[in-house]
Amino acid sequence: MKKVIIIRYAEIFLKKKNRGFFERAFENNLQRALKGYTYELIKQSGRYLIENFDEYETEEMLAKLQKVFGAHSFSVAQETASDLDSIFEAAKSYCQESGTFKVDTHRGDKKYPLTSIEISREIGAKILEYAKGKLKVDVHNPSFTVHVDVRDHGKALVFGEFIDGANGMPVGTAGKGMLLLSGGIDSPVAGYMMAKRGLKVDCLHFHSYPYTNMQAKEKVVDLAKILSEYTCGTKLYVVSVTHIQEAIHEKCKAELMITLLRRFMYRIAERQALRIGSQCLITGESLGQVASQTIEGMTSSNSVVEKLPVLRPLVGFDKNEIIEKSVKMGAYETSILPFEDCCTVFLPEFPAIRPKLSEILREESKLDVEGLIAEAFASLEKIEL
Ligand code: ATP
Ligand code: MG
User: What is the rounded average pLDDT of the residues 298-325?
Assistant: First the structure.
């Protein structure tokens, strides 16, 4: 019997007018996720089918598909002829030894001689007979359900379960964003969340080599790779801010190190975003999580961004909620590796919690802001993932 993967879409549905645009993006992303596998992708109304693939690769392919935003659920079904005996043969493999069940039928072929209720009843009767008293029908709260989908051309699909998809919108349908990617837990999750809303996400990382080591950089490359599986490919840029931290350390008040550094990061990020056509910045900030993530801290870093919005998808989340998402996306184990990213170098003992903008501007005026940014851009590297 032939296996078929059913892919049902999530919210794309709702987009009546632009439906074609959303479907094309979704299709492209599915194909990208399945690159290297042999299969056929067939579009039907409201869903896709994957046919003619190597059955031994089913699990692997499903794992890839589960990272494609826009999919609501999947089922691995058996394709059979649509006569009742053939459907029953397939249905048997989804039956448990004992307990209660129901048969749920959807009839795409309106010319089929039986209604969907009649098909369910007939298949249910055959299962009861086959189970010899060990199974009972319970349509309200069954311990398992056999799903039958009668298609055109004398074929039916039979399956037992719905596998969760990633939901959200197809990546690329909401534009492009530039994620400030650190080596921590939060920013990869922030990127994941915005990709889920359809943004194509590219990453920018600031490092302080030689104060931070190569392992710190590798860790960020690994995080970008993990994220990239959800974002349909990600570009990773890295920029050195060592000279900026040194300049701040030398000339400015120690407690403003983080605040001032952040303002440089945001300026560099916006300029790099504009260079590559990104339409927003994304950060992993969460209100009150650390000293620099107060409203005052955010105001200070926002005020240097001139043209783009700054998205902070985690602003209202607790750390444990963020960790849960990090685990779910598969980034957590990498994020907690102990290599420092640049912010821990020159870290003041008591960072300013509510920095005043006037004081920040006074300290910043001691620095050659444009010169330092130019030097940072001279260190810009694009890393192939
Ligand atoms: P994360 O877990 O993402 O590192 P965090 O809790 O350590 O966040 P901060 O260090 O205050 O918080 O950083 C806040 C945000 O600033 C990060 O989520 C990230 O978007 C950005 N950021 C911080 N450090 C870097 C860096 N070295 N390179 C790029 N972006 C950074
Ligand atoms: Mg961090």
Answer: 97
DSSP 3-state of 247: helix
Question: Is the model more confident about 347 or about 286?
Answer: 286
Residue 289: CB within 6 Å of ligand 1? yes
pLDDT score, position 48: 96
Q: For ligand 1, say whether the CB of 205 is within 6 Å of any of its atoms.
A: yes
Closest ligand 1 atom to the C-alpha of 322?
Answer: 2
Same fold, 2-164 and 176-384: no
Listed residue (154, 123, 149, 183) closest to 46, CA to CA: 149
At the topology level, CATH places domain 2-164 in: VC0802-like (3.30.2130)
Residue 211: what pLDDT?
86
Calculate how far, in angstroms, residue 322's C-alpha sits from the geometric centre of ligand 1.
Answer: 14
Cβ–Cβ under 8 Å, residues 99 and 145: no
pLDDT over 90 (residue 272) = yes
**Cα–ligand 2 centroid distance for 181 (angstroms):** 9
- Cα dihedral sign, 12-18-22-23: positive
Does the pLDDT value for residue 292 go beyond 90?
no
User: Average pLDDT of the chain?
Assistant: 94
Hey, which of 178, 185, 187 would you mutate to test ligand 1's pocket, going by the most ligand atoms within 8 Å of its Cβ?
187
Delimit the domains of the chain by residue range.
2-164, 176-384
pTM of the full predicted structure? 0.93
What is the assigned CATH class of domain 176-384? Answer: alpha beta
Residue 343 CB less than 6 A away from ligand 1 = yes
Angle between helices 84-92 and 116-131 (to 10 degrees): 50
Does residue 150 have its Cβ closer than 6 Å to ligand 1? no
